Amino acid sequence: MTQPSLAHATDYGRMYSRSTSGSPEVPSITTVISQEHKDMTGWAGHMATSELVNDQRLAAAVGSPAELKRLARQASSAAERFRDAAAARGDRVHHYAEQVALRALGLAETTQAARAALQEHRETRFADRFDEWWSLYGVTPLAAEVTVWNHTLGYAGTLDLVAEIGGRTCIIDFKTKGLTRDGRSKPLNESVVMQLVAGMKGEEMLVDAAAGEWTPWPYGGDPILLGVAISEAEVVAAQSNPALLKAHWFKFCVLRQVWEHSRTTASAGPALRPISPPPVRNPEDPDNERMAP
């Protein structure tokens, strides 16, 4: 995941400040969404098992408990390594998409260097498919990697792209995807709708990070919210259902409250305290009031 200039890693997740010299004040959109627990233990177990059974050293390790334990320990981190590799690939693809938008806006860009980084990792097909989508949809960028702030609920986030497509303003979030068994792009997760609607509900947009200069958010009227899955085989754009935006916004609001309460309890100190057993009363005391020594 890329790190916008005002974003900070904290004990309570990623948070945003109002300027580069300011302190973190509000959670990021993705931090809020992450309050919804998703059980990934099954996937992690599958990744670990798959790596272990496909390890060419497994046959030679049979009969050696120490070697089997070493292979199992290495396989147990397969999910984390896959996640980190996917995140790094996503950063490279997102960076390329941003540079294409900056080039179209006539701003300073490093498109060739971004493509070269993809080529170094044998990922240029992501860029090729993105270029095809950009041309096919006639994308006219209005702002790239724009940070928005909502004071009413208290959060901030950075949107991948605001663009005009087919005469309509669109707020766009890019997701880098792998392929299904039949060679198609894996589908988007519906949580992208929460991410997009939270971006749409921004009240200010960043102008100058160092100076902490913000301006009213001009794109929250009635935009089309698009999740765009970028894979090596194809780019698939999906519009958020307008009839369901209110429900997803309410869900986001609830998760924002969950984050606040979690931070409050985490910063309040230990919630449990040790307690000693009650003093034993002296059974010989007729009034049963004097404590035993």
TrEMBL record:
Q: Where is the composition biased (Polar residues)?
A: 17-27
Task: Outline the segment boundaries, as ranges, of region: Disordered.
Answer: 1-27, 266-293
Compositionally biased residues, Basic and acidic residues: 282-293
Q: Give the protein's recorded name.
A: Cytochrome
